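Input/output pair, single chain:
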Amino acid sequence: MPIPTEPIGSMITIEALQDRLREHIRSKIAKREMTGSTLARQAGLPQGHLSNFLNSHRGLSLRSMDRLLNALAISVLDLVGTHEIQSWIAPAPRSRFDIVPRISGSIAMMPRLLHNGVLAVHCIDKSLLRRLRSADVADRKMWQRFVLIDLEGGEVRGIVPASWGATVLIDRHYTALEPYHRSRPNLYLVRLGQRLAVARVSLVDDSLIVQPCDAKCEVSVVGMTPEVNYFDYLVGRVCQLRVEP
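Output:
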């Protein structure tokens, strides 16, 4: 199911962001802080691909843009001004959109979203989000409720082909194990060590059972302790998923 996104107000366009990224890279190359070949190698892009981008002969896919941002150790917010960010996060009172951040998996379990972990912001219809019920047994009322997270194919095995990726809309205020829909079990985004996975979960005695969607994947059993609750492993419920070939 696609995740709807629409621009509002003074939302900067992808083309404008790419122009700013070009200038940022050109400036670093001119100052001899890096070379184009080094950046292309670090970002995993063909050097000719990067050269064409810097010479304005072509644009970038969102995935390639993310790779360049990661190689440069910056986020998309570093390419915009403070006044522009404020216009994103403070839309007009009558706007029918809510701002939802797209974040890196490394900050998925953090109550406060770190600046360098926010990759972009998206506008999602308020009516869609308000229809979603929460079930917060982890007392996360101070957490940003909805977030978007990009996942690789291995993290959503059994849902999309292994070579594809996906973007998931997560409700971090849904930490109960009760089914959202009576007819099917919930899917959660689960953090196991440094790994994220979309899975079904259940609690058996003092153990959390994590069942990946791919039946060929190994089931994980995580023992609970008095200091650790099952929801300490749950980023939240998967509300929507957008496949990206």
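The radius of gyration is 20 Å. The first strand starts at residue 97 and ends at 103.
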